[in-house]
Amino acid sequence: MSSDGRHRCRGAGRVRGISYCPHSLTVSPAAGRKRLSAALASFTEQWSPRIVTAVNDYDVRVAKVEGEHVWHVHDHTDEFFLVLDGELRIALRETGGERTVVLPKGAVFTVPRGTEHKPYAPRATEILLLEPTGTSTVGDRHDEVPDHVDATTGHAIA
């Protein structure tokens, strides 16, 4: 807190011209407001997203990630990523070949429907996902799912 009473955050960033602090972001589900920091503090599992709220027919999910996910495809939906803390890399297999998108804290990226992709976090990272309710974390088609990846449609926050 600064001397003028306003919150100052070294982790603050800007997404599409909007300033935010990942420690004080709130979302407002029907049951009331929730802090993303509290949602992230409520679990320790990697690659096991928690549903923070719903927007129309979409889930807003947060996850802690580190290491590799699994190559997978969402045939009927895009997948939105916002890096809250850390760094996320997303390998993409596209018509022209493979490429990797590097997302630092505060960056957003949307994987287009039908694009095979594999998220990877080189260190502990916190992300926010926006996907249609019921979307599996491993998509409609995927490689063998390793033990450290939770094949789920999201978990409620305890």
Q: Rg, please?
A: 16 Å
Largest sheet: 8 strands, mixed
Alpha carbon gap, first and last residue:
29 Å
User: What fraction, in percent, of the residue positions are helical?
Assistant: under 10%
Strand content of the residues, in percent? Answer: over 45%
Tally of strands:
14
Provide mean pLDDT, rounded.
Answer: 83
Unreliable segments (pLDDT under 50, ≥5 consecutive)? 14-20, 26-30
Structural category is mainly beta
Helix tally equals 1
Order of helices and strands: EEEEHEEEEEEEEEE
Characterize the overall form. Answer: globular
Structure characterization notes:
The longest helix is centred in the N-terminal third of the chain and has 6 residues, at 36-41. The protein has one helix spanning 36-41; strands at 13-15, 18-20, 26-27, 34-35, 50-55, 58-68, 72-73, 79-85, 87-94, 97-104, 108-111, 116-132, 141-142, 155-156. Residues 14-20 and 26-30 have low confidence and may be disordered. The strands form 4 sheets. Strands 5, 6, 8, 9, 10, 11, 12 and 14 form an 8-stranded mixed sheet that branches. It has a two-stranded antiparallel ribbon with strand order 1-2. Strands 3-4 form a two-stranded antiparallel sheet. It is mainly beta and 158 residues long. Helices cover 4% and strands 49% of the residues. The chain contains 1 helix and 14 strands, in the order ββββαββββββββββ.
